[in-house]
Design goal:
The chain is mainly beta. The chain has 1 helix and 7 strands.
């Protein structure tokens, strides 16, 4: 098994819950019951993957990554500036590249 670590992400837990901001770590291959460790500035929580609605992160300097329904999606270069502005507004900082 391989550990996946995303160092700077926005973690959406559902529309009635505030998003978490921090790092995400889990073992691959991921399944619905895989435990995801989310570390924020002031706490560490462990959440089953099936309770996370969306993970948004800056994949590299030109693309964003999204984990949704246990699958990884990558943005196209055309939408990078839009995602960068929106995530910066939400997270109050520009997300760091991960890869």
């Amino acid at each position: 098994m391989k550990e996946i670590r995303i160092k700077d992400a926005i973690i959406g837990l559902g529309k009635d819950k505030d998003p978490l901001f921090g790092s995400v770590q889990y073992e691959r291959p991921a399944k619905t019951n895989t435990i995801v460790t989310v570390q924020t500035d002031n706490k560490t929580v462990q959440i089953p993957l099936n309770q996370i609605k969306l993970i948004v992160f800056k994949y590299d300097a030109k693309t964003f990554g999204f984990i949704f329904n246990y699958c990884l999606f990558i943005s196209d270069n055309k939408s990078f500036n839009l995602w960068n502005r929106q995530t910066k507004k939400l997270a109050c900082h520009e997300l760091q590249s991960n890869f």
